[in-house]
Amino acid sequence: MAARIGIDTGGTFTDVVRWSKQGVTVHKLPSTPSDPSRAVLAGIAAVRQHADEAVDVVHGTTVGLNAVLTGSLARTVFVTNRGCEDLIEIGRQERTDLYALAPRRPVPPVPRRLRVGVHCRRGPGGTIDTPLSNTEIARTVATVQALAPAAIAIGLLHSPADPSDELRLQRALQKAMPGVPCTASASLHAAFGEYERFSAAILNAAIAPVVSGYTRRLQAQLGNGRLRLLRSSLGILPADEAAAFPARAMFSGPAGGVLATGQIARAMRLPRVAAFDMGGTSADLCLVETATRAHDGATIAGLPLPLPTVPVHTVGCGGGSIAYVDRGGALRVGPESAGAVPGPACYGKGSDATVTDAHVALGHLGTDTLLGGGFPIDVDAGVRAIERLAKKLGMRSADAARGILTVADVTMARAILVITAERAVDPASVPLLAYGGAGGLHAAGLLARLGMPHAVLPPLPGAFSALGLALAGESAELSTAVGTRFDARSWPTLRDLARDLAKRANSLLSGPGRTHLEAAVRYRGQGAALRLPLRRSLAADFAREHQRLYGFQTDAPIEVVHLTARAEQPARSAPRNLFAPANSATFSSRRFRQRRPPVGGIPLPVHARLPVGQRVQGPAIIEETTATTLVPAGFEAHATPFGMVLRQRRPRR
Questions:
Q1: Domain span including residue 216
Q2: What confidence tens digit (pLDDT) does each residue in 174-199 have?
Q3: Which residue from 188, 202, 514, 585 lies 20 to 30 Å from 112 (Cα-Cα)?
Q4: What's the pTM?
């Protein structure tokens, strides 16, 4: 059987985890932003037993996401109904910032000159108003060819009700331009809502050449093995689906961490946790519950991407986030990051002060902290960067470093409030599961700021998302548009339609799987819908969930917008010995060394990762190969079989 390898590529480090029933092997190395595949291939080579060993690689990649955020997209032509060419630019006329005097609207990836109108039309039920003739298809193909596209997106009105016109255009365009990827909107997202569906089709088409080029290069150099991606809603994408619809893996990296978080939460019998992944470039947060459901409300660069996605909220605050003084003299942190190149000043190439440099100045990180000394830190360079910033602020270096960490904590605390309080969940009732290379350094600060009960630092925190990728099972999702009222008369038809979808989804897996049926439901007349399990009690479930989320319910009829069937094979279980990385018999409560903060302060005791059953009271630093945990004064770390638990000590009465 091929060895399973999970790989998560971040802005600063690339994490590699090799899984087997006997245990896991972890390798972490600097990312190569100019060509991410170089770090990926080096990581695979490091964990392979021999060069020709068969491997099954599951990759969490941000290649597509970064292409959208940086505007590095393929030249894309958008084909739509004549008269609807500007719909993608008009959007919903929503204002995300009500008080901006000059609001900035998202710019569609396809400029007006690359939008082609087709003389055809279908009504809401799929009936033909203006037929699509062969002559019109030929004219459209010739027009598109003249524009020399690298990718094509097709979006016609009401195509979820009948996609035949989109498919005819797709076949003709692919025949004329066989090397150009072509996305039909209803095939990608069979749901009503033209603006959102058109946006998804354009984004999918625009990243297809970028992602497919990247995966092809990787596969060609992989040798004996296969490369697959994780879908944004968890589960491994079949190779042909990933090639046609790379947008379904847009958030594959964060999804790996959410998957692994679910395993830890179930093992610890926690019904709800806040997953907190702080890496070098950003922090990803997700409220993981017993039945965490994907949502269809993701956005990228202000553009909707209505594909199933675990609800991850990302903020531009990571270890490499640059600290600076704004025009008003205030200290700011991020969202700009030093990334892997040049990296924080303490990495020896950059000069800007970053969050990581603040930790170095305060003694939280030492020369040999990262990768067990395999990635040396230039302490003097990091301290000099903090001193330069402190001079601009007119304060002591230690205060400037602490200020950087405080600003970073506030930014991430706001993000936690987005995933908890804004969903009517009290953060004081939600444990924090902190991972990523910097998650443990900020866990205590977030607990104190938000009153959260405790934090869990899981095994392999710095490669936790890669662990989730290594554990993932296969999945397949199929959707169909419905647009019908939900009541006793429509239930049998909906149930039979969903069962047929489930059979088709199961047939896409390499072996038997478990099927989940969901319905997108809304009150008649609403624009947005909620995804809920499809069952006879759907109406009552919807009313209850609508009340919880929005604070009201009405007597208006509800309608099912579309159905989704998800077939999945169970994720692999983490090896038991993963949760006990050290032997408690070898632990000594004696501080094995101390580190004096370069900018002044009391020496900090430095421990290795605690074995199960042991406790350490702060102030202290706990180091391991992939991450570091800060235990401030007033906090205590306790090692359990499933991770270190960090909590505030209760004052003695």
A1: 3-68+212-250
A2: 999 999 999 999 999 988 889 999 99
A3: 188
A4: 0.88
